[in-house]
Amino acid sequence: MFDFAGKKVFITGGTRGIGLCVAVKMAKAGADVAVNYLRNRSAADEARAAILDASGGKEPLLLKGNVAKDEDIQKMFSEIGDKWGGLNFLISNAASGVLKPSRELTHHHWQWTMDINAYALLPLSRHAIPLMKGNGRIIAVSSLGSIRAFQNYAAVGASKGALESLVRHLCVEYASQGINVNAVSASVVDTDALKHFPNREAMIEESLQWMPAKKLVTPENVADAVMLMCSEYTSMVHGHTFIVDGGLSIMLPG
Ligand SMILES: NC(=O)c1ccc[n+]([C@@H]2O[C@H](COP(=O)([O-])OP(=O)(O)OC[C@H]3O[C@@H](n4cnc5c(N)ncnc54)[C@H](OP(=O)(O)O)[C@@H]3O)[C@@H](O)[C@H]2O)c1
Q1: Which residue has its alpha carbon closest to ligand 1 atom 37?
Q2: Where residue 72 falls among pLDDT bands split at 50, 70, 90?
Q3: Is residue 252 part of a domain?
Q4: How far is CA 89 from CA 2, 75, 112, 152, 198, in A?
Q5: Distance from residue 145's CA to the centre of ligand 1 (Å)
Q6: Beta-strand runs (E) in 23-160
Q7: Among 33, 24, 20, 9, which Cα is nearest to 137's?
Q8: Residue 216, Cα to own-chain centre: how many angstroms?
Q9: In a designed cystine with 15, which of 37, 95, 145, 147 is the match (CB 3.0 to 4.6 A)?
C-alpha cells in the first residue's frame, strides 16, 4: 500500500517489538532504514537480518546509543548525515521506565523515565529537522497512559503525557516549515516490554474485557498507523495523537 522508495527513516528502539515492525514495513515499502538500540546486540543482529530480508538486501544502519543522552544522539545523527546526507522520517519509539506505585518512585526513577520517554524527542528532532530540508515527518510513539491511568504507570504515563504535549509544541514551531509532527498512541501490545509489568496479566485481561474490538492491538497495527502518518494521505495532519486501541479509550469501565 505504501511506496517509500528513496525515503530515509530513522527508528529509535527499532530492533525489537513495535519499532522493529515499523522497520520491516518501511524496508518492504522501499525505504532506507536506520535503527537504534541500546544494549541488546543479538536482537539488533536479528533485526538487521529481518530488515535485509524485507528490503531485498539493502543494508540497514544499526545505531547503538541511549536516546536520553545528547552525546549519543549527536553521534547517531552524525553517522546518518555522513551516510545519507538527509532524512525523511524520524520515528521516536524507544521507551523505558520504572513501573512502580507512586509512593515508591524516587527522583532518579522519575528522571530516568522522563529523559528516555519525553526529553529524547527534543534533541532527536533538533538533529533530524535540518536533515529533512523542509519536508519530513516526525512520529512519537506514545501510550494510553498519557490520558488514562493504570496501576504502576505513574512515571511512564506522565512521561507519555509530556511527550504528547511536546509533539503539539513542536508542531506549532515546525508545521510551516514542511515538517509534520504527530504521535501514534496504543493500548496494551504484547511485546517484551509487557514482561516488565508486575500486573501484566491483569492489564491484558482488563483491556480485553473493556475493549470494543475484543482483541489485543498488535505491533503490526501500531506500525501500520506509523506508516499512514508518514504517507501523503496524512499530509495535513499536524500535532495530533492517533490512537490505536480497539476502542478501549472511549469506554468507561465501572
Ligand atoms: N508494549 C506496549 O504495550 C505498548 C503500548 C503502547 C505504546 N507502547 C510504546 O511503543 C514503543 C515501543 O514499545 P515496545 O513494547 O515495542 O518496546 P520493546 O519491545 O521493549 O523494545 C524497546 C526497544 O527500545 C530500545 N531502547 C530501550 N531503551 C532505550 C534507550 N534508552 N535508548 C535507545 N534505545 C532504547 C530497545 O533496545 P535494546 O533491545 O537494546 O534494549 C528496543 O529496541 C514505546 O514507546 C512504548 O511506550 C508500547
Answers
A1: 37
A2: very high
A3: no
A4: 14, 18, 26, 32, 34
A5: 15
A6: 32-37, 61-64, 89-92, 136-143
A7: 9
A8: 18
A9: 37
- Containing structural domain, residue 125: 8-246
Cα separation, 182 vs 238, whole angstroms: 6
Select which of 8, 37, 119, 153 is catalytic: 153
Ligand 1 binding pocket includes 17 (Cβ within 6 Å): yes
164 near 183, Cβ under 8 Å? yes
CATH of the domain at 106: 3.40.50.720
Answer yes or no: are the C-beta atoms of 210 and 248 closer than 8 Å.
yes
Cell 525515503 maps to which residue?
7
- The Cα 225–Cα 182 span in angstroms is 11
Q: Does 96 map to a domain?
A: yes
| Any ligand 1 atom below 6 A from CB of 158 | no
Residue whose C-alpha is closest to residue 26's, from 58, 62, 68, 54:
54
Amino acid at 52: L
Give kind and range of the element (H or E) at residue 142: strand 136-143
Instruction: Tell me if 8 sits within 8 A of 86, measured CB to CB.
Output: yes
| Domains: count for the chain | 1
Is 147 in a helix, a strand, or coil? coil
Which residue, by CA, sits nearest to atom 5 of ligand 1?
188
Q: Can you tell me the mean pLDDT for 107-134?
A: 98
Band (pLDDT 50/70/90 cuts) for residue 252 is: confident
The span from the CA of 8 to the CA of 5, in Å, is: 9
Nearest ligand 1 atom, CA 196: 20
pLDDT tens per residue across span 163-196: 999 999 999 999 999 999 999 999 999 999 999 9
